[in-house]
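Dock flavin-adenine dinucleotide; give full complex structure.
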Amino acid sequence: MASAEVANVVVIGGGVVGTAVTAEISRHCDDVFLLEAAPRLGMATSTRNSGVIHAGIYYKPGSLKAFHCIRGVPMLYEFCAAHNVPHERTGKLIVADSEERLPILQDLKQRGDENGVEGLEIVDRKFIQRIEPNIVSPIALYSSNTGIVEAEALIRALERIAKSNGAHILTNTRVIGADAENGLATIRTEREEFGARVVINCAGLYSDDVARMFGYDEHTIYPCRGEYAELLPSARKLVNGLVYPLPLPTLHGLGVHFTKTTAGAMLIGPNARYVKSKDDYESDRTDLRVFYESAIKMAPALRFEDMRMGYTGIRPRLAPEHQHTFADFVITHDPIHQSVIHLIGIESPGLTSCLSIGQSVAEMARNVLA
Ligand SMILES: Cc1cc2nc3c(=O)[nH]c(=O)nc-3n(C[C@H](O)[C@H](O)[C@H](O)COP(=O)(O)OP(=O)(O)OC[C@H]3O[C@@H](n4cnc5c(N)ncnc54)[C@H](O)[C@@H]3O)c2cc1C
């Protein structure tokens, strides 16, 4: 696009959220551009996660996380079926190590029920043994609506839809500066300048930096790495599906858990470790034994030699390390430049929520353009 022209919408960041937003908005609107710094869409957090379709149990009732997760689940299952994206409604167990933990499981179930999660039940040892013979636990919360999705295939499907709607997707295009005046934004990349009536900031870990380009300085992203181990192919039959420990308020994640992937791998993780840099995926990796010690509590037959190191991802956290409070997604118009929409802190369940977020943000954008 020549610098003098003005796009209707520029989306910054082609992760699963930016691509879902682009696919949805380009159904209603032409001149939509998606600018992605990396050579391909979805190379950051969107393909470095557990790939779980979360049912919506954990999130504070009334929060954006609860809303978009619950609304997003059926949208995602339907989308995956319609567009041949590998997925499976596996169900999930949250296991307790003693029957005395029943009140914690009941609280979790109550929160899930309040959020409108379907298919939650407290199950006994017999049920657990039937679906997971190698998991030792007397009592668990079972969520039948939880599943898994292949994030890479999901992003490719959204990309195809966006392109077929006429959206322009520019990879290797990092936004390095931006400002806005009289309802028109200017976006600067290393090669060219874009004018835009609406800008949508979906820059993931860097969404706080992109917001600051517009003078919006309310939020800071604290990168929190999640590392995985995995089972060797020969040992994958140890666990059949998704098995989580009880979430503890002092943990920064959901606790190291077993997650089957659509490709048949079995992940163990992720842990949660704050790191200094937003692109520090590999330095000072956690010892494999730490994952082993957590995992054998649920599956005592696990052997250390059946494990190897896996990949890592980085959560775009809005809470610093020693703050254990709930932080919601931030999805907001820029207070000064109403035509700029910021999505900040889209950590888990962002993958599950992507289609629901896409729908809401496309509506916000259409209202600006109307
Ligand atoms: C360890 C881990 C496990 C998770 N597990 C799950 C799960 O099981 N289920 C679930 O629902 N969610 C999960 N999540 C959360 C989920 O992965 C994220 O919420 C989701 O991927 C966020 O997508 P995004 O598009 O906002 O961000 P990203 O995927 O980070 O995309 C942002 C994009 O913006 C680009 N960008 C950044 N700056 C610029 C710039 N200046 N110019 C142009 N482009 C730019 C980046 O290159 C990147 O591609 C997990 C996350 C982690 C880290």
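Observed: The chain has a mean pLDDT of 95.
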